[in-house]
Amino acid sequence: MVSAHTSAGKTVIAEYAIAKALRDKQRVIYTTPIKALSNQKYREFSEEFPEVGLLTGDATININASVLIMTTEILQSMLYRGSSIMREVGWVVFDEIHYMRDPERGVVWEESLVLLPDCVRFVFLSATTPNARQFAEWIAFLHAQPCHVVTTDTRPVPLRHYIYPLGGDGLYLVLNEGNYIEENFRKAMASFPKQKELGGPGTSRAKTGPMSKKTEDNVSKMVRLVKKHNLEPVIVFCFSRKECEIYALKMSECDFITPADKNVVEEVFKNAIGGLSPEDRCLPQVESVLPLLKKGIGIHHGGLLPILKETVEILFGEGLMKCLFATETFAMGLNMPARTVVFTSVRKYDGVNYRWITAGEYIQMSGRAGRRGKDASGTVILMVDETLTEQAGHAILQGKPAPLNSAFHITYNMLLNLLRVEEINPEYLMERSFCQFQNYSRLPELSEELNRLQTELSTTVLEEEKAVESYRKIQLCLQEIVEQQWRYIRRPEHIVSFLQPGRLVKIESEGDDYGWGVVINLKKRQRNDRVSALETFYVLDCLLATRPTADTAGADEAPSTSAPKSAEILPVRLDCVCGISAVRLMVPQDLRSPEARSLLYASIEKVKTKLGVADLPHLDPVRDMHITDAKFKEITEKARLFEQRLEAHPLHKSPRLPELLGAYERREAQRRRIDEVTRSLTQKVSLIQMDDLVGRKRVLRRLGFCNEHDVIELKGRVACEITSADELVLTELLFEGIFNRLSAEQVASLLSCFVFDERASEMPKLSAEMADALRTLQDIARRIARISRECHLPVDPDSYVDSFKPYLMDLVLSWAHGATFASVCAGTDLFEGTIIRCLRLLEELLRQMTNAARTIGNAVLEAKFSEAIEKIKRDIVFAASLYL
């Protein structure tokens, strides 16, 4: 297990293992997580070793070679099918093993590792992983062989990390070879130019995402600064494809390379596209990229044509690209170091919302800076705006890499393959998974904690137990009724008009009390839900005493009473407001400095002192806010009655009440923790995900994929052939004869619903026949979702049906009918690279459907799927990789 920093030379250990295997006349399998990395490794190893083969979904080269490079999914498939190749394999190298924590694909690594025979030896190459030893212990347990851990403590090339405040006055060194310079961080955050807008810190682009002209100019300014100080080559990481292209075009007047280099770039480019048809060579994306390349500027993202991506990679590797605008996928595995790395933002959209980048993501991308043997140090520049708090910055810059945790989950493909193989069952795989191993490793710690808690509870004596318990029950009932009141008060029609700047509000979230804060700004937002219309919601910018660590008050730590409080402006959801005062303060124009924020926050205590009260006066919901709803009045009356009961309780005026309640709460917390630990122990002793396994077996029986004795049926054997899409829905479509009445082109069109996973702007216009086929697909998906729910699986029918996206159906139909790539691209706003990726996935799925039809014995359908492959497999979409 080699867990080392970027550029530490991990590949040398893999090469040694390969050389050792070849000496002993054994074969080696080298697995990678992505096809692009497989292609790159094939090219690299072909120069080192005499016999190298490649097996990916897109290419098969020299299958009898001694060194076989493949994706992990191919290895998994070979293991399930009992490939004869496995009998000759002496070593398996897993590159980028940290991919095992990927929520969707990580399970493939665990399956492969459990299924590999004990006689095979392993090399695992990984980025820095804090729990590398735990992983090695699992391998030793799994295969009864020692697993040595090799780690690095420092990078071969040290890094200097700078912060560049957007619109600020320069760079600030905040992390120098591991030493954090806190003072420089504070100077950087105080250097932002004054903004006229009230509450500026809460109104930045970082909250909402769209790129501003200001950011665009700052990126251009930063790249010019890098060029001026001869710090290129530079990789500029952007978090959207569109931004990569806009920034690159903005830099197009800059020239980074010599005339001689321009000639080399043009020659490489012409050779790269030489195999394309004249029509494909005239595609807008192909024509627009050469002028940039000839200036030493490159673009690299998933929407780019694969052939252009590879051209950029080759030019960058040869030192002919001095400025590369890339998305984070460029940092995943590809060995392409630079001298400088620039981040255009510290936030990214993760598919759900905008968030800070994690320490792991930052380490992965910043690790591209500093070329071993060329640079004395690497430079990393983080472009930030006002929203970056000290705590968030510290977490990104000095955070630890994410541990290698299991993402094991049961899939139908796994289950069906295990039912088909007699020697192994699902329980065996689950028992030996890394997930189960990690569960077992916590048992001693949990047992010790349980014993300690039980001892503490048995020695705890609570005075006036029954009286305290009854008082606490009334308190909890009153709290619930008050929360019902606040659900009415927080409705925008009631509360928004009172949330002016300066209004004092009380904030509470998930049990954490943030106390009183000052409203700085109120923002109206719209969320575009994919099912319903635009949804309006409100966000408060609020000055609070807290230690912010995330985006909303709901995720931050409650302020510690012992620690010094710092006042920060944070975005707060309306549902976090639990008190609204009659008091308003004057808010100064400029709140960027910590001193100004602390001064304003201190005014809250001054108001309390002036009024001579412990708490601030509240707005009355009926008298001041004019809430006249009958239901609200009923709830208010109920709250009044419970308040009377509380006041009449014998303990209410007892001076010992806080002490007694505190002791009671501590004991209840002990009991809750004992219950949690007991449940956790029970779960960790038993097999993980057993309920999921039982539920999935029920679904397979209900659908006829296996019988009541878990013996696989014909449907199940057919489903085993399908690994790249939803095997249940596709098998049901096959057996219901949907494909029999469609042409080869229409088959390809319908199957595109299984490979497209992005959003699209509008639904395609479908013929009556294709619309009917789509309805049948959706009906089958709805039926499977219903059966899954009946078998107690957490499947949402609407989400499941929506996962089959029809947005490419008309495009694929046109392509299958012979349309040019330029014409199909003109009819959509999707990137060319996205279309090619989907068509290649579709070809892979069609090959699997061909095998499925062969399993049934339907030669006509088999021929139809093969014909569909011929219809779509042409031109630039299936142009060979430049690495091959």
UniProtKB/TrEMBL annotation:
A Gene Ontology biological process noted in the UniProt record is: maturation of 5.8S rRNA
Which Gene Ontology cellular-component terms appear in the entry? nucleus
Domain named Helicase C-terminal: which ranges? 218-419
Name of the protein this chain belongs to = Superkiller viralicidic activity 2 2
Protein's cellular compartments: Nucleus
| Residue span, Helicase ATP-binding domain | 1-147
InterPro entries reported for this sequence: Beta-barrel_MTR4 (IPR025696), DEAD/DEAH_box_helicase_dom (IPR011545), Helicase_ATP-bd (IPR014001), Helicase_C-like (IPR001650), MTR4-like_stalk (IPR048392), P-loop_NTPase (IPR027417), RNA-DNA_Helicase (IPR050699), SKI2-like (IPR016438)
Keyword Acyltransferase attached: no
Disordered: annotated span = 195-214
What's in the keyword line of the UniProt record?
ATP-binding, Helicase, Hydrolase, Nucleotide-binding, Nucleus
Q: Tell whether Chloroplast is among the UniProt keywords.
A: no
**Species of provenance:** Echinococcus granulosus
Q: Its Gene Ontology molecular function terms?
A: ATP binding; hydrolase activity; RNA binding; RNA helicase activity
